Amino acid sequence: MQWEYLVVFIPDSRVAQADPETDSHLDADTYTDKLSMYGEAGWELVSFEWTADGAKCAFKRPRK
Description:
With 64 residues, the protein is of the alpha+beta class.
């Protein structure tokens, strides 16, 4: 089976950076919604890495 890959960056809204008392990953719903959107399109999340400005995600799915 051959795979195709997709790497995307999901940016933070910077809400947390304006207030140091706020959880730095306050936008969890935004990430969940984006990841679900890719999942519905047939992409499987294979890597997720927090960065200073958001998250880097890698997906794969069978090549058609």
